[in-house]
């Protein structure tokens, strides 16, 4: 087994009276895409900024290749913030050139423009880009030093579905080059598609961690039954089933579909509005935190 | 380090040249100075002459010259102050009421020449006395002040606001995530503004100097050295103000708090020679005062490096201290 490229130990960040990060520990192996999942305010961005070396923790430590974050880390890390401002009055190419000039090593600018499909926009003022184009430029800037680790903080928030899909394709191609990626998101589909490992964070703590599929297998039986709340008789809620209520839905998870359906029919629950599906990360989050993702 | 500094320097220059609003403002101020000077000193002068009288105009009442129209008579406290005003062309003539009436004139001033003719017509017995020291026109004395003042505004506001804007937008936070250091970033800002302000000042010096028929008594290379050190000190001061603040109002207030005393106390418009000691001490601490003192010594009196070395050393030390404070207290984020 290879050594972790990034190791986070007992990380704490307090903004009195709030504790934003409350004792996080995890390891990221080289070449892996690690996802930090959680609702807004869970402490994802704070954790990311401490890992990026731009925010000092109240306690705990982050190490890169076994050393404290230092010059080597700054040269080898690529970063995409949740909201990144760029210098005004620069074109796409000049914005890239500025950041390329800040690193000792890096990629050729034309190659980056090609990789992030920005060739046609090279001469455009960076303020005149659409949301998706801007995000591609910011990714290109994050890749300008040919980083070993890439931090992506909610990279597709605010993008339209088409732009998100394009961005995912890009991230997958970057991943294929063997780069380690740390990603935060509150989109579970994004995490399922891109991440090898995830940590679900809530109130500054990790509530579950592992491979997405394994986590789902561990926490859920094979099938999930879903009823609209209105269509589920109140008396049936006390049935001996693994049952979870939300504002709109009643969810039942089960290993034995036949027996569960017989129980429901026996209790007079109408099956007309029943939906059956495999559980996803959103369900897992709900199961673990007891509340829905506050998107 | 140099490579990173150059990358930021180059990007800042591009931004400055393309930001038409601030570019225009940077050019409008010096242009209005040129126009203003053209209007005030270039056109036909109003027929108003000022004459200083030792002991006050009352002592002159019996003389026919006192009734000359378009001449304003002002009391002058001492002969020393009066002669200084003559040398700087602030008054056309200094009179010591007689009899016999004695007077001093600035032999380089056209106004003095005319008023002298008027005086001789009114009082043929008046005795002319020699003025010692180099005599200059008031506008010559004012010229270095105008150049320096334009430089001060551009240096202080030009860099302070840019850094503040970068911090507010979060661009500084992004730069923080790269190997760039605070010192490299600040140095790039200093050098970018320095290049811009030197070019503007050179244009002002040439154009306004030609309009005023200004004759520079000193060495141009020395003048360039003064301009570089003076601009550096004031840019560094502006950067220190903006090193960690995030509020526009506060930065604006602080910059105003710094510029206005310099406008009033540096001696750009009027000499502080007669002011109380403590005020002169404050004035001497201001970078604009030091810059102006050195610039006037070279431009008007042809002073050498030895004479102005204390001013230059003061400005250099000030630059290093302010850049050091700025880099040490620098904040990348709000």
List keywords for this structure.
heterodimer; A: 295 residues; alpha/beta; Rossmann fold; Alpha-Beta Plaits; 10 helices; 31% helix; 27% strand; B: 334 residues; 12 helices; 5 strands; 7% strand
List the helices and strands and how they pair.
The complex is a heterodimer of chains A (295) and B (334).
Chain A (H helix, E strand, L loop, with lengths): L5 E10 L2 E11 L4 E5 L6 H8 L7 E6 L2 E2 L2 H6 E4 L11 H9 L8 H7 L15 H12 L6 E5 L7 H16 L3 E6 L2 H7 L2 E6 L2 E6 L1 H8 L3 E6 L13 E4 L3 E6 L2 H10 L8 E3 L3 H9 L6
Parallel strand pairs in A: 3-8, 3-9, 6-7, 7-8
Antiparallel strand pairs in A: 1-2, 1-4, 4-5, 9-10, 11-13, 11-14, 12-13
Chain B lengths: L1 H17 L1 H23 L6 E6 L16 E6 L2 H9 L5 E4 L5 E4 L4 H13 L4 E3 L8 H32 L1 H6 L5 H30 L8 H23 L5 H18 L11 H9 L1 H15 L3 H24 L6
Parallel strand pairs in B: 1-2, 1-3, 4-5
Antiparallel strand pairs in B: 3-4
Helix pairs in contact in B: 1-7, 2-5, 2-7, 5-7, 5-8, 5-9, 5-11, 7-8, 7-12, 8-11, 8-12, 11-12
Supply the number of helical segments of chain A.
10
Strand content of chain B: 5-15%
Helix content of chain A: 25-40%
Mean pLDDT of chain A: 88
Low-confidence stretches of chain B: none
Number of helices of chain B: 12
Q: Provide the number of structural domains of chain A.
A: 2
Q: Order of strands side by side in the largest beta sheet of chain A?
A: 6-7-8-3-9-10
Q: How far apart lie the N and C ends of chain B?
A: 25 Å
Outline the low-pLDDT stretches of chain A.
Answer: none
Spell out the CATH superfamily of the largest domain in chain A.
Answer: P-loop containing nucleotide triphosphate hydrolases
Name the pair of protein chains with the most residues at their interface, and give those residue counts: A-B, 26 and 26 residues
